[in-house]
Structure formats: C-alpha cells, structure tokens
Specification:
This protein is an alpha/beta fold. The relative contact order is 0.08. 62% of the residues lie in helices and 9% in strands. The strands form two sheets. A six-stranded mixed beta sheet has the order 6-7-8-3-9-10. It folds into two domains: 4-214 and 267-341, ABC transporter transmembrane region fold (Up-down Bundle); 360-450 and 505-607, Rossmann fold. Bound molecules: adenosine-5'-triphosphate. The site of adenosine-5'-triphosphate (ATP) has 12 residues, from α15. Adenosine-5'-triphosphate binds next to α15.
Amino acid sequence: MKHLGLYKRAVLDLWRSGKRYYLLLLIQTFARASQTFVSFIFMNRLITLLSEQNLVAVRSVVSLYLIIFTVLHLLTTLLQPAINDAKELADRRILELPYEKMLTMRYHIVDSAETSQKLERIRMSNMSRQSSLYLINVRIPFLMDYFIRVVWSFILLIPLFTQVRVTGQSQWDWVSSPWVLLIFVIGIVLSIYIQYLSSQKSAEYMSNLDESVIRTNTKFNYENRILENTESGKEIRLYQMQDRLYQNQKELDQSTEKLLRGLNHAGMNGHLLTVVVSQLLHFVAYAIIGIRVLLGMLPIGQIVQLSSALTQLLSNLPNLIQYLAMILSQPDTLVEYYAFIDLPDDQDVGSLPIEKRLDNEYHIAVNQLSFAYPETDDLILNNVSAKFEVGKKYAIVGENGSGKTTFIKLLMRLYEPTAGEITLNKIDAQKYQLSEYFQLFSVVFQDFRLLSFKLGQNIAVNQNYDTDKAMKYIRQLDLEQMVSQLPAGLETYLGKEFSNQGVNLSGGQEQRVALVRALYKNAPIMILDEPTAALDPVTEFNIYQQFDQLINHKTAFYISHRLSSCRFCDEILVFDKGEIIQRGSHDELVKIDGKYADLWHAQAQYYQ
Ligand SMILES: Nc1ncnc2c1ncn2[C@@H]1O[C@H](COP(=O)(O)OP(=O)(O)OP(=O)(O)O)[C@@H](O)[C@H]1O
C-alpha cells in the first residue's frame, strides 16, 4: 500500500504521545473483552462436566472461573481513572503537535498565508477527517476492542475445524466435510470483502463531504474567533457588524446541518448487504454446529462456545473492517499533515557555531542583497550593499514601504536573501547555526508583543528571571514607579487571562517594557524598529537617546519616521524603493540635495 509508511509514522507518533495511555488501554481492553470469552469457555466446560455428572470437577471449575473473572473485572474497573488521566494528556499532546511545529519552523514559512491555511486545515481535519491523527487516536480503543474480540472468536472457533469426525455411515456426514468448512470460510472472506468495499465507498463519500465541512467550519471558526475577541468588540459595535455576523453564523449553521445529514446518509450505504450476508453466515454456521452436536460429532458444551464465539465474530469483524476502511480511505489527511510537519525548522539551518566574543566584534555586511517575499516577484530589496562597523549607531529611514523592516528581518535571518548574501565576520551568515545567530540580536519591533504572563517573565522571556537585573533596566527606563504601584511588582500578570489581579499597561508603558526586554537580553546588536511610533516626537526622541546611552558601545540600528529621533546616529541610511540611496551623518546629508534633506525640511516645518 502506497501510504503504509505514513500510517506507520502516525501510529509511532501516537505511541510517543501517549505510551502510558495506550499500554493501560491495551491491558484494560484485553481484560474487558476476555471476560466475555472466558465465560464461553467455562460454560462449555461446565455443560460438558454436568452432562458427564462430574460434580467434583464442577466445583473447582466454578471456583477457577470466579477467580479469573474477578481479576479481569477488577483490572477493567481499577484502571479506568488512570486511563482517563493518561487519555487527557495524550489527547492534548496530539492536538499540540502542529502548534509545536509552528514554534520551531523557519520564520519565513510561518509568516506566509499558505502556512496559516495549512494549519487551519489540520485543525479542522482533526475533528472531521477519519485519518487525522486525532481521530485515529479516538478510534484506537474501538479498534483494540474489536481486534481482541475477533482474535478470541477465531481461537474459540478452532474446534469447528479440528474436531471433524466422519463416521462414513450417516447421511449427515457431509456436515463435517472439509468442503462445508471451506465454503463457510469463503463466506466469511466474502463478507469481509463486501464490508470493506461498502465501508470504503461510504468513507470516500464522507471524505468528499468533509472537504465542504472543513470549508464551512473554517469560516465558522474564523467568525467565532472574531466574536470572542474582545478587541474586535469596538469595531463590531462602531461599524454595526452584528447583523451581518449573526446572518453569516445562521447560514453556516444551515449549510453544516445539510452536510451532516449527507454524512449520516452515507453511513447507511452498503449496510443492508452486509447485514444480509452476515445473517446468512449465522444461519449456516448455527445449522452446522447444531447438526454436529445432535449427531454427537461435537460435545454438547461446545454449542455454547461455538455459537457465542460465532456471534461475536460476525458482529465484531464488520466493525473492525469498517473502522479500518474509514481510516485507510483518507490517506490525504496524513499526507497533508506530514507535509506540514516536515517543513524545515530553524535548527535544520546552518551548522557553524558562533564564536562567543566579549569584545562584541561581530561585523555584519550585506553584499548585493536582493529580496522578494515568497510567492511574489516584486523585489522589495534591490541589490543593497553595505558594511556596518562594530559599536556604531545606524539610523534607517525612508518612506512607508521602502523596505526598512524587510532589511532588518533579513539581517536577522528571519528570511533568507533571494540573491546576494549577508556576512558575519566575512562568512556567509547562512552557514551559522540559526539559533545561535538569533542570540546576536535584541530587537523591538513595531508590532512587538507582550504576553499574558508575569511582568518579570515577559522581560526575561523565561519562566525564571533575575529580579536585580530586571529592576536595573526598569529603573534605567523610568518604569520603577509604575512597577512599584503594581499589585505584585514583577510577579504581576499582564492582562486578565491568568489572574484577576492582572493589569493592563498603557501603550507607552508597554513600549518601555518591550525596551527593557531588549536590554535584558543584552545581545551584541540592538535594533529598534519604531516601537515608539505611538509616542509623541519629543518622548520618542528622549527614549531613543536614553536607550542609546544604556547600550553603550553596542552596534545599533534605529528605524524611525521622525528624522529628529535618529539625528544622533553615526550614520543614516536612506531607503527608497528597496535601495539605499543615501548614506552619511545627519550633518552631511542635510546639506546636500536629496531625499534626506527633503524629508528633514518637510518634517521640520511641522515642528517649528
Ligand atoms: N510578509 C510579507 N509578504 C509580502 N509582502 C510583504 C510582507 N511584509 C512586507 N511586505 C511588503 O514589502 C514592502 C516593504 O515593507 P516593509 O515593511 O519592509 O517597509 P517599511 O519601509 O518598513 O515600511 P513602514 O515604514 O511602513 O514600516 C511593502 O510593500 C510590503 O507590502
């Protein structure tokens, strides 16, 4: 089978996600299913002993049965709480796997619409596609149960094939002929085949419907997220989007209901034929067993064992096949899933370690650097070359969309160049281990995020933090008073998600905390990509200056639209349509005709 490798991988991943759960489940399922079959064996033995009037043996058989049954029953019930706990953990782990992947995946892949769509599809598939990792996990308890029952049934049916006594004198001798048994076995194989075909057909039908269900669910979930997101609440009210959203939800409910009706209908397909074949087999098998027992070819006790095992076989085998067919009919889900999981990770990139230098002598340069975002042809950076000296302060300025942030993202290797190269100490940056390379940069982006964890954890970006170190930078960025007023100081949660005592910081306070975070990381190269855009020009100017004094002799890049904020920098790089069109100090650039002087004078007008 073409996709067998994928199914094997899925089973291994499931096993890794919940070894304890599956082991306990196997023991419990075996114990539960065995209770039924052990009772058939003992019934057989008891009836035979009673018919032989061997009452002494009956007593010991009953005692043994009670002991075995009690052990099996205790195992079944006592394991349940541990199984519930282990299942909860295993379920969670399985659902987490794609999100964990997002954390380690290369950033430029994460930052693409295609990846978000893939993740959304995986999320949706988990609940609706039969061969999603999650649904395979849901089916495993049933599969185990059916499988163990089928194996037990076959074991108990062995006498039907082994105890063949042909007297050569009876007109019923044909009942024991190997041909009759062969026809019976062919009947079972045929019923398996019919069951498989009909299950596969309905599974394929369901698979097609699933596509529509996923599409509808994606929209439904998107709208639900909008509705639950308190931040959208403002816009929803102001632009009166409520009616449209209610209407959308109603339409989605209706189309989901229609699709689900189709799914239920699909489940019925082929069911009838399977039931007819199964009933025929029942009838033939009972007739064979009955006639044999009547003719004395089988001991009377066997009638219970054989007929019960047969009933179990004919009810569990179709279920086992149906479940397997459902899982095997949608390999595409696993193909999609593993294509996502196999996307390259940060750690797969580069192998050179980065030399740890106390003198911060990390020389960065870009040579003929060009870049287009994935799935686009527009060059956002076009043949940019520049060298940066250690310890110097650089300003990157230019109009909206001129490529400033993109340049920074490339410097940090969040994206790789389309052409040209970035070098660190004269070696192509792509050769360095990416995780070590990231350690070289402390960055505050325009759209920085603080998380709903404790303030101290936000600053250290770690569970544990060094209070003295955090407080040092807090003081330096004039946040000490704010922190002293928080209910639990550095231990205070940001936002209300995890604690009612959590606080909402103002925009300006958040920006300073983001700057403290960058200082705490204490990397050799500092970058501020306009995190202070929401502040007034004077405050931004002060913060940039203050920050620059704090980082001493580190190399730094400052992006701002307010040229006055970056005036103190050693060099200013003026970006225009993806190129560096001017480079020099403020005093040099302001004197010559060009973009910088134009922008400077245009802004100066407003500040006069
Ligand atoms: N992830 C992305 N995928 C595709 N195009 C992008 C992506 N990010 C940015 N762009 C495009 O790249 C161009 C440069 O964007 P960039 O953010 O680098 O400009 P910028 O100079 O920093 O602008 P601003 O001053 O507004 O922050 C823009 O045209 C933008 O639309």
